[in-house]
Design a protein that fits this description.
Blueprint (H helix, E strand, L loop, with lengths): L6 H15 L9 H24 L7 H21 L19 H12 L1 H10 L6 H20 L4 E3 L6 E3 L1 H17 L1 H21 L6 H10 L11 H4 L2 H13 L3 H19 L11 H7 L4 H15 L3 E6 L2 E7 L5 E4 L15 E4 L20 E7 L10 E7 L1 H19 L3 H14 L5 H12 L3 H14 L5 H12 L3 H14 L4 H21 L1
Antiparallel strand pairs: 1-2, 3-4, 3-8, 4-5, 5-6, 7-8
Length: about 525
């Protein structure tokens, strides 16, 4: 994305792209742009809200007042920009601010605190709290919050190199910064999503069926003859509109058993068709997939999931080490591990593309029937390896997410890895940061970010990225190896040794990495010994 792209230009691009994407669904054409406009209204009100309560701060809270005033002004002006409104003042004042209704304030309380924290706060006020009680709560919370933002917090090293002890004040400041940054980046994120939706729509409607006669054609070309080859679009071959119509008819019966059976039947038909395409490691770019007909695990989840969406069947994206799959949840609450990958399966022999998963197979016995409408969130669970392909008894961590969020993050993470291998580390950093912005709970883009930062010699930043990945999934060995390398490059040898040993305790793969880590441990131990 161009660095000098203005907010109002982003909104126009989103509207134009979505209008093209949803030609057959006019009701969806303005949804992305309207989302940004609504966000603008929220920011305008948020600035007004903060400005209104600054005057209730205590007299000796000048620093806190100034921070609140600055944020109020920034929020207000940002909200005006998102709505295509002209700036009418450099700051919020009684002359230009709107009067907020009690309902507005309740919504902003939840927006600032988050739904869970808001509900807990309101519950403390008793049933049907009065507006006076809510006003006192707001005044108290805002004073405490902004006083904490200007106070010096502490962050220090933990017992292990991959841990950091953070004080409550520093934790609040870090959280505030992350939350504000994430919300402010919404327009850019929405524009990336609009482009993603367009690519996915083209993939679903334009992907042609694989025709193995191509191999025969290559032979004929060698002898100077090429028979005509006609390929049809997968969308037409599968008769997606007809499948959608059939499912809608069955749903009218309201018979859960019949509906679920039809959903599973259609999903299996789509899975069989998608898994017939040949596998290629990095093939997940929609336009390239259409051109070459190669797909990888992410590409197959894109195509298969897009076809499920076209029929009206819901699913979740499953993100696990070095693989992407999906989880189908039928109307009767049953859950199926649904892998659209071609016959070559990265998880090893014995991996089944379709397998029913019960709640007892997952850690914490998650009720998946309540999880098929994930929005901006994701859940992490663990399956027994033996249930999805391995014979071991170890637990395999799987992140389940909303398809649009999960697949976008995976594509951007893959792009970051490709760019890094090409030596384009600056671009790789941007790609990984976009993936993190879209799905901050996915550990893999943090690993990619750490690798790219290390490639640029920015090892202090890389250390933070690897630590973030470890905090999300402490049992993944990859970020420990990256962290150890970054610590070694920073000359923090003892910490690096400890981290390499942690990596070795978790690593179960190729002996090459074991030999390399052990060799580096010996080298660092000799360096430390010579110092002493």
């Amino acid at each position: 994305l161009p660095k000098d792209l203005h907010l109002w230009e982003m909104m126009d691009i989103i509207k134009t792209v979505d209008s093209d994407t949803f030609t057959g669904n006019p009701e969806k054409q303005d949804a992305g742009a309207n989302k940004i406009k609504k966000l603008g209204e929220v920011f305008e009100k948020a600035g007004t809200y903060l400005d209104e309560y600054i005057f209730s701060f205590e007299k000796n809270d000048d620093d806190a007042k100034q921070v609140a005033k600055n944020i109020a002004s920034e929020f207000y002006q940002y909200g005006l920009s998102l709505q295509h409104k002209e700036r009418n003042a450099d700051s919020v004042s009684e002359d230009n601010r709107k009067i907020l209704s009690p309902e507005d304030k309740d919504q902003l309380d939840e927006w600032f605190l988050g739904t869970d924290a808001y509900k807990k706060r309101i519950a403390r006020l008793g049933e049907n709290p009065t507006e006076e009680k809510k006003e006192e709560m707001r005044k108290h919370l805002l004073q405490v919050y902004f006083k904490a933002l200007v106070r010096e917090g502490y962050k220090e090293e933990g017992e292990n190199p991959w841990e950091i002890k953070t004080g409550p004040t520093q934790r609040l400041q870090d959280t505030a910064r992350e939350q504000i940054t994430r919300v402010v980046e919404t327009p850019e994120r929405e524009m990336v999503s609009a482009i993603f939706r367009r690519g996915l729509e083209k993939l679903v409607t334009e992907m042609k069926t694989i025709d193995w006669r191509k191999a025969v054609n290559n032979f004929f070309e060698k002898i100077g003859f090429s028979p005509p080859l006609e390929q049809r679009k997968l969308f037409d071959v599968l008769k997606i509109p007809k499948l959608k119509s059939e499912l809608e008819e069955v749903r009218k019966t309201k018979d859960t058993v019949k509906i679920s059976a039809k959903e599973l039947e259609i999903a299996k038909t789509i899975q069989e068709a998608v898994s017939s395409f040949p596998y290629q490691k990095m093939a997940n770019n929609p336009s390239e997939m259409i051109e070459t007909q190669f797909i990888n695990c992410v590409g197959s989840a894109l195509l298969g999931g897009g076809l499920l969406d076209a029929v009206g069947i819901k699913y979740l994206v499953a993100d696990l080490p070095e693989h992407s799959a999906t989880v189908l949840i039928t109307s009767d609450g049953k859950v199926y591990w649904q892998d659209f990958t071609p016959p070559f399966k990265p998880l090893g022999e014995g991996n089944s593309n379709y397998k029913e998963i019960t709640v007892y197979m997952s850690e914490g016995e998650i009720d998946f029937s309540e999880r098929n409408n994930l929005s901006d969130s994701e859940i992490a669970t663990r399956f027994k390896d033996s249930y999805i392909g391995d014979d071991g008894d170890d637990q395999l961590k799987v992140n389940l997410s909303n398809p649009e969020i999960g697949l976008q993050a995976q594509i951007l993470n893959n792009a970051g890895n490709d760019l890094r291998k090409l030596g384009k580390n600056e671009e790789a950093v941007e790609s990984c940061k976009q993936a993190i912005s879209i799905n901050p709970k996915d550990p893999y883009p943090y690993i990619g970010l750490g690798n790219a930062l290390s490639g640029l010699g920015r090892n202090k930043e890389a250390v933070e990225a690897y630590r973030q990945a470890i905090s999300i999934n402490p049992k993944d060995p990859y970020p420990y190896n990256g962290l150890a390398n970054a610590l070694r490059d920073l000359g923090r040898n003892e910490e690096a040794i400890k981290t390499y040993k942690k990596f070795l305790s978790l690593w179960k793969g190729d002996i090459y990495w074991i030999d390399r880590a052990e060799k580096r441990i010996k080298e660092l131990e000799l360096k430390e010994k010579s110092k002493k």
